[in-house]
Sequence to fold (121 residues):
Amino acid sequence: MNIKPIKTEKDYIDALARLELIFDADTHTKEGDEAEILSLLIENYENQFFPIEAPDPIEAIKIRMEEMDLKPKDLIGVIGQKSRVSEILNKKKKLTVDMIRKLEETLKIPASLLVNNYQLK
Fold:
């Protein structure tokens, strides 16, 4: 096992190639240990150089709606009436605390994501 920190893009590419070779190794072997350590090093490098930002609250709602095969009409009563649902999903109005609580419960989106600021159109 020859593991070293990932400092460059070449190191990163080499680590990915090695991990691909040993990915299915048994966890109780030398190669399994190497795969686990490489995974952590790769994850750390990716978090540092390729961070993924959380979507804004409205995009998060739309993503979850798509995952749950929901239509805007399905949010009537959660966000408000049909016109309020449209205003929220089109970023014409901001979410209220009550809406955030109901969305967290209904769509299982963390309130910490829903309270993030976003620009109205």
Remarks:
- The helical segments are 9-22, 30-49, 57-67, 82-89, 97-107, 111-114.
- DSSP finds six helices and no strands in the chain.
